[in-house]
Amino acid sequence: MKHVFYASAAMLALVAGTTQAQAQLKFAPGEGAFSWDSYEALKAVDLSGESISILGPWLGPDKELIESVIAYFEDATGADVEYAGSDSFEQQIVIDAEAGSPPNIAIFPQPGLAADLASKGLLAPLPAETGDWIRDNYAAGQSWVDLGTYAGADGAEALYGFFYKVDVKSLVWYVPENFEDAGYEVPQTMEELKALTDQIVADGEVPWCIGLGSGGATGWPATDWVEDMMLRINTPEDYDAWTTNELKFDDPKVIAAIEEFGAFARNDAYVSGGAGAVATTDFRDSPQGLFASPPQCYMHRQASFIPTFFPEGTEVGVDADFFYFPAYAEKDLGKPVLGAGTVWGVTSDSAGAQAFMEFLKSPIAHEIWMAQKGFLTPHKGVNTEVYTDPTVAKMNDILLNADTFRFDGSDLMPGAIGTGAFWTGMVDYAGGKDAAEVAASIQATWDSIK
Amino acid sequence: MEMAGTKSRLTWAVNLAVGFLVLLWIIPTFGLLVSSFRDRDAISTSGWWTALSASEQNVIVRADAPDNAVQNGSDWIITGNVFDTGDGTVTAFGITSREPEAFAPGEIATHAQGHEITVDQNGDYQITYREQPSGSRGQRLFVRAESPPGFTLDNYREVLFAEGMGKALLNTLTVTIPATIIPILVAAFAAYALAWMEMPGRALLIAGIVGLLVVPLQVAFIPLLKLHNNIGIGKGYLGIWLAHTGFGLPLAVFLLRNYMVGLPGEIIESARVDGASDFAIFRKIILPLSFPALASFAIFQFLWVWNDLLVAKVFLGTGEDQVVMTGRIVDLLGSRGGDWEILAASAFVSIAVPIAVFFSLQRYLVRGLLAGSVKGG
Amino acid sequence: MDQLLFAVSTIVVGVFGCVAYFYFSNIILDRMLPASGPNAGANINKANAIRPWLFVLPALLVLALYLVYPVFSTFFLSLRDTRGNFIGADNYVWLAGDDKFRESLGNNLLWLVIVPAASTFFGLISAGLTDRIKWGSVAQSLIFMPMAISFVGASVIWKFIYDYRGENQGEQIGLLNAVVESLGGDAQAWITVPFWNNLFLMVILIWIQTGFAMVILSAALKGISEETIEAAYLDGATPLQIFFKIKIPQIWGTIAVVWTTITVTVLKVFDIVFAMTNGQWGTQVLANLMYDWMFRGSPDFGRGSAIVMVIMLLVTPVMIWNISNAHKENR
User: Fold this and answer.
1) CA distance A253 to A267
2) A419 touches chain C (CB under 8 A)
3) What is the predicted ipTM?
C-alpha cells in the first residue's frame, strides 16, 4: 500500500507545479507621487526561481490589498510569493512552526505570539542593521524596535519582528450631521466629552454605542477602552509596568481605569440598549446605531478599521467621521494615542525571505497600500501625497501628533491574559461584577502562569 | 366503528405532532435560508421573519448635491426620488435627525438655512432654494417608508462566482472522495475480523477502538504534521487522505462491526464448512450483505470531510491547487468576519452536495444502520 | 480536469492496493502454512491464529499512528511546561486548583447528562411518530438536515435565534426574543443568563444530534417483528403501551449505541461554545478550555494536554461499559 501512495505523491508533485500567474500591478511604475526609485532599486535583486510563502491573518479585501503590494516585489525581483490568509492564524502558525513546515514569513496580529515563537527558537532574528534602520526611519523608532525585540531560545534578546501597517485605536466615530442637527461640538478634552455625554442624555437621547461581542474573542473591545483610559489617568510608565505586570492588575490605578470604562459602559442611560446589552451586542453590529433614524446613539469608540462595518454606501468624511478620543485637560499627560500593528517575522529563513523583509523597508511597499485604503505607517520616508483618502491622512496626523504612543496592552501581555483572562474579566465586569474583584481574578491567573 | 374513530383521531394527533416537531426543527434553518436572500443591512436591522411582509422603516436618504440644482424661474431646485427602485410609500418625513417624522408627505418643510423641502407619498422630493446653492454634500432626508419585501441573489452570486470557487470545489472533491472510500475499505476488513474471527484480546481491541473516538483532533495535529514532514509527505493530498482515514476509522469500525455481528451466523458457518476461506467469505458474503452499512458510514464520513475546514488547513498546502471550498468561503468573509449574508448563502451552497448525497443514500442508510444497531453495542 | 483524473486514479490505485494487500497476504499465508501435507492440522491452527491479524493490521497501523501515538505524545507533553522542561504532575495540580477548570468540569457533566438524553429522547419520539405516517421519510430528512449543515452555517443560524437587542437598539432580530416580546415578556440576552445559558447552548447540539439518533432508532423500530405487535394489539394494548412496553425494550441495545456515540461527541464539543460564548458567562467546557490553552496567545501545550488527558479519563466509564458488552457478545 505504501509505495502506491508514494507513486501518487509523485503524480501530485507533477500536477502541483503548473500554475502561478503574475499579478497585475495596481499603479503603473513611474506615474504619480510614489517613490518609484525604491522600486527601481529593487530590480537589482534577482530572485527568479525563488519562492516565498507568507502566512497572515488577512482575508478578503485585506488579502487583495497585501497581494497588490506583493505584486511589485514579484515584478521587480522575479520571485514567486504566495500569500495565504487564515481565519485561525494563531492556531495554524503554531501548528506549522512546531511541526516543522512553517511559511517563510508570518504576519502576527499580536506581538505576544511572535515573542512566544521566538522564545522557542522558531523565529529567525532579523539582521542587526534593521534595528538601526527602524530607529532612523520610523517615527518613535526606538519604541518599534522595543516592540519587536524578544528573547530567543537561548534567552538572548534580539530583534525578531518588523512592524508594517499600524492601526490607531483612540478614535471616536460620529455622524457629523447628527451633531449639527443637535448643535453638539466635537469635544477637545475628556471633561468636554463627559459633559457632552451628559448633555445628550439630558436631551433625551443615548450618547454611546458599545458592543463587546466577537464570537470566540468576545470582550476585546473593552480591553481597548481600559487601555485608553489607563493612558488618560496614569503615566505611560505605569502603562508599561502594567503590561509586564510590574504594576499588578489589581493595583488601584488599574482598577480606576476599569472603572473609568465602567462609567460609560455600565450606565444604562449612556449606552444604547442599556448596560445589559453591552456584552452581547456584536462589535460588528454596534456601529449601526449611529446611522439609524432616529439615531440610536451619537458616538462609538473604535479603531480605524471599523468603517468596514458601516452600512453599505457610507462615505467616511461625509456620512461619518471621527475625532480623537480626548485626554483630560486637568491631568498633565499630553495626548496619548493607543495603537496596534502587525508584526512580521521570518519563520523559515531563506534569501528570498530576507529580501522580502528588506522590501518592507522601502517606501514603495508602504505607498502602494497607502494609496488604496486604510493604511497607516510610522515610516517617515514615504510620500504622504499618495493618500487618496483624506480621512486616513487625518488619522496619520493623530498618530504623528501623539505625545505618547502606546501599543495595545492586551497584545503585549501573555496570551493567557491578553487574549484570555482580560477578555473574560471585562465581560464579567460589563455584566455587573465588581472591578476590584475582576482585577483580582485576572491577577490570580497571571500569577499562575509565572 | 369505535375503534376506527379512535384510530383516525390518533393518526391526526400523530400527524400534528410530527408537523410540530418538523416545524421546530426547520425554523432555524429556514431563518438562515431567508437571510441568505437579504442584504447585510436588512439582516442586521430587522428579523428574518419580517422579510416576507412589506416593512415600514425609517431610512435616511441623501438628496442630490446642491451643485446639481437647476434654475427654475427665480428659484433653484433639486428633484429626485428617495427610493432606489421607485417602489414604496412615504408615510412621513423629516429634515433633521432629531425629528425624522415631523412632516406628512406633501407638506413643505423649511430648513434653518431657508430652503424648502418636500417629499411626496410616492417618494418624489423637491428642494427649492431662493438663490443658487453650492456644495457637493446633499441634504439628508429622513423618510418613514413602507417598502415591499426586497430579496437579492447577490449573496449567492458572490459565493458561487467568487474567484477560484470552481477550482476549490474540485479540490474539495479530490479530498473528499478518497478520504471517504479509503477508511471504509480498511475498516470493513478490520470490522469483519473483529466480528467473526477468533482472536485473543478481541474485546479489548474493540473497546480500545471505541475509546479512540474521543481523542480530540487538535492534539493530533502537531505530532502528525511533524511526522508527515519527517517522512517526506509534507503538506498535500496524500497527507490529508491518511489523516481523515485515521480520524474516521474508529467510528467506521464501531458501526461496521456492530452491523456485521448482526449478520446471520449460519450462512458464514456453512460457508466455512464448505471450505471457503475467510477472504472468500468476506468478499462473497459479508461485503454484499454489508453494502447498506458501508453506505451509511459513507454518508457520515462524507458529511464530515466535506464540511471540514480545520484538518484541511493543517494538512493541505495553501496554494491555489489545494485550497478547499470551506477555505475559499472563509476567504470571502474578510479578516474580521461579520458578513452574515455571505455566511448564510455559503452555508446553503455547501449544504447542497451533502444533502444530495444523503437523499440518494437515505434508503441504504436506514437499512444499513438497522441491522447494525438492532444487535446493539 | 487533470486533478480530477488524478483523484480518480488514486481511488482506483488505492482501492486496488488495499484489495491486493488483503488478497496476496492471504495467499502468502496459505502458501507458507499449507492446509495439507504432514503438518496440516497444526498449519490450519497457526493460519487461523494469524489471519485475523492480517485483516485488522492496516486499521491498527493507521489507528496507532494517527490516534494512539498523538495520545501518548499528549500525555508526555502534559508533564512539561511551556519551555519543555519536565515538571511532573504540576499541570494537573494547577488544574485541580483552577476555577475555570472546575467550572468546565461541572458544565461538561451537565452536557454529558442532558445532551445524550435529550437527543436520544427526541430521536426516539420522532422515530416512533414518523414511522406511522405517510410523509415520514420527508419529515425524517428535514429533521436530519442540521447534521449536514456546516458548522459555520450553524453558528449563524443560532445567532438569528438568540440575538438580543436592548431597548433603543431597534427591533429584535433574534427569533426567541421576538416571540417572547410578542407574548408580552421582556427580551433577554439569552447567552448571558447564568446557568440557563448552558442549556441554550446544549439546545444547539441537541438540534444537530437528534437527526442522527432518529435515523438509527427509526431503523431499529422497523426491525421489530410485526407478530409481537399484532399480538399485543389483539390483547387490547394501546399504541402508547405498545411503544413503551414492547418496542422500547426490544431496541434497548440500539438506544445504548446512540447514547454512547452522542456521549463521545459531547465530550469533544468545542465549536458551539467557542463561537457562541467562548466559555464566558459561566459556559466554559473542557474542550474549549483545552483549545484556549493550546492555541490562544502564547500557547501552553502542557496545560492544554493535561486537560485533554482529563477528557479522555472521562470517557473511561464508556470504554469499560463497551468492554463488558463485547465480552457478553463473545460468550
Assistant:
1) 21
2) yes
3) 0.82
